[in-house]
Amino acid sequence: MLSYLVSTFLKFVDLFLHLDKYLGEVIKSYGNWTYLILFTIIFCETGFVVTPILPGDSLLFAVGMFAAAGAIDLSRIWPLLIFAAILGDNVNYAVGNFIGPKVFHYENSRIFRKEYLQKTHNFYEKHGGMTIILAKYVPIVRTFAPFVAGVGAMTYPKFLLFNVVGGFTWVTVIMLSGYYFGNIPVIKNNFTAVVLLIVFLSMLPGLIGYLKHRRSPSP
Fold this sequence. Notes:
Number of helices: 10
Helix content: over 70%
Distance between the termini: 62 Å
Largest sheet: none
Shape: globular
Strand content: under 5%
Order of helices and strands: HHHHHHHHHH
Number of domains: 1
């Protein structure tokens, strides 16, 4: 009995973590509940710093593919996932904003010094808008960016504006890419390779920025 429960749990975790691969089976098995499942995954992927490994870009691309095939209603799933992304970032920001002042209040701490909080705040006030938008296209980073913005107490109206812009453009660009190009035979038959390419391209801006930072002379 225990082994069966463990096996079932592991299958569920695998399904949840790799829904982009099993989306067709989920649609057949759960019907309209698929919309809630998709909403939950995008919300969790953007809303909690402990779940950055959930599928994001690849899932949105797959949703676009199935929407083009008529298995998912694009007019329903499009605004739903935009809302999930925006809501997730808001929750992440709120958690970071709640935790930040409680943790970074020590003057002499090596890790949680108060000056670090002030530096984070200054950075997000100056560059936070583009950070929030561009982070949407970088796996893992998009999960931490709103949390750090909250920790740094980025002005909320400014955060909300760029969060809405970032959430809308991210879901729209990736999902419509799947909708218009996902069912082209060469792409559909090499879905795994396409997913890996999407992940690579999503991480490329961050990688380029990191390399530029490493090559720049120290002050």
